[in-house]
């Protein structure tokens, strides 16, 4: 009987493992998208700054914090940061206005309408999109590597 | 043979269908994988073909709308009415499955930009807004000018994108794109998954059933194996025979039935425990005396055993020798009882040498049993051989059974032929020659006896008999010298050697008993044979090399064997007067022998001319019809 049970358990385990891909609900939701976003923002920020990155994201969730912390040094306050990424629909005026701080948004319309932002990373048609405005880059003396060339727009 | 009977014969036959089923399952699995791919493709086509068609119509409408314009891009950028109409066309494409529908163009920098977007306000792209595309496939449409389907593996919310070119003057001006949400593919995959799980489930069930069937088969095999083994003795039992007797190839075996003599007395005298212990020891003796892989030992009844000894094509005598070996091993073994006493036992054996002449195993076994019955009738402790006729074969050779019977019935004797010293014309030796009286009291010569028993224990028994007869003559007549013919096997046979050692205890016997051997490859190559010959010479026996000059003759080996006499082969002597080569051969042998200190005997001296010639050549001893024919012991001169 023991022998029989042993084999039944082994077969059951094999069947469970075969369908293991059905159990992805165990992984945190949207972690992949946030990871991608964090990597891109960290890369953009590092390329835009001439000093070590101190990233601030307002109203950061726990998940965002844990993911972003893997790719960038996070700043607890807006004042201490040298790169601010506003990825939520919040009032931009509530954010501090430090002179040498770079502002980045996740909204194309905000990018166009608000001079503070020199670029945006956003999801367009479910695809990641990056846009830099050439004039604002020049105003901030930002020299991006050539790999970013395709993302620079000469919007007036 | 029916499947049922196959199943009963061996679980092996069960494994073949099991393997076949496993193979079919593997094929089925591979087919299922292909089927899944095909069904997937088909489901995809069914669920998207209409949408693709509608999109193509939409593209056609846009193209018709713009066909009067030379530059579609500029026309759309500058004409708001045109933009609205195009957008209204695109909006008709949106469904729960088509997430986005939009019109883009590629600018001079190779960047895709929106011209129209059917999305709602929040998601709507602006005119000329850049679209970062994720795949180089987007650029392919400008080269191929045909619709392109892009399957997404990295994007979370999109499953595929369908791109349609809108051309002006055979140049792609615009690209109409629709993005499918993952919902559609998920629906397809869901159907596929149900199908896949169903098939896998069935296969798992079949696999589990097969697994348990194999387990059962292994268990059955073990149970069956145990049911074939006799628990007391550890050899096969009667069940084994009943199961496999139809599969036994009668051509391959000889059948020996063995019965322990007076076994009942052992049980009655020492008790059943002793009887059991004796049976166990007998069985072990049988196992050790037989070949593990070739021969089969079966306990057939209480104290009856059956031995199937496999015949070998190039050595047909081996099985019979095995039977003889186990017979003598049992004779020479002391069997220990539980009381630590030991007893000696004998067995009776009936052998069927020709089972292939029987139609069934049972018939062949019965004949072995008949032989066993005869062995018991003759007083037990013997091997009785059954062969088909018990008569001579076509060449007049006696059968084994007949020869064995003659030995047992003491119908063997020796005739003696003189060997003459030609210098003195006196008798130097006699050569003992085997003779057998058949049932009609006719004399049978060795050429009718020896071919049948070459390699068997009967040949050794005959040598023993001849040595015994000659020994008696030597004892009776102290001046008589007799030569006995030995076979090469006799020189390495412990029984014969032991007998010769016993005779040599009387020095007057050894020096008068000459041992004649044919020089064979076996004799000169086997170190043991050479050692034994040296030992026999040391014991006082004179060694004669028989038939020298024929067959395997070599002066170097002659020097190694150091015989006292060589007997030049009769076929050479017979031609000595007519054939120069024979003459020269004899002359050289004589010269060599003189140099080596070996005496020479000429055989087949049939007339005076040959006698004169050999005398001239310096051969001292001669034998042949010119002097005498072989005669019975009564005519011996002593």
Structural description of this entry:
The complex is a heterodimer of chains A (156) and B (638). By secondary structure, chain A is of the alpha/beta class. Chain A has helices spanning 2-18, 31-48, 62-68, 108-113, 134-139; strands at 55-56, 83-86, 102-105, 117-124, 127-133, 152-153. Chain A has a six-stranded mixed sheet. In chain A, helix 3 (62-68) links the parallel strand 1 and strand 2. Chain A starts with a helix and ends with a strand. Chain B is built from 22 helices and 22 strands. In chain B, helix 22 links the parallel strand 21 and strand 22. The model of chain B is unreliable at 1-8 (pLDDT under 50). The chains are: A alpha/beta (156), B alpha/beta (638). The A-B interface holds A 7, 11, 15, 18, 32-33, 108, 124-131, 150-151, 153 and B 99-100, 102, 109-111, 119, 123, 125-126, 129-134, 155-158, 179, 200, 204, 208, 211.
Strand order of the largest sheet of chain A: 1-2-3-4-5-6
Q: Which percent bin holds the helix content of chain B?
A: 40-55%
Structural class of chain A: alpha/beta
What radius of gyration of chain A results from the CA coordinates?
22 Å
Helix and strand pattern of chain A: HHEHEEHEEHE
State the major sheet of chain B.
8 strands, mixed, barrel
- Beta-strand residue percentage of chain B: 15-25%
Q: State the total count of DSSP E strands of chain A.
A: 6
N- and C-termini, Cα separation of chain A: 81 Å
Q: Within the largest sheet of chain B, what's the order of strands? A: 14-15-17-18-19-20-21-22
- Terminal CA distance of chain B: 73 Å
Mean pLDDT of chain B: 86
Helix count, DSSP H or I runs of 4 or more residues of chain A: 5
Radius of gyration of chain B: 50 Å
How much of the polypeptide of chain A forms β-strand, as a percent range? 15-25%
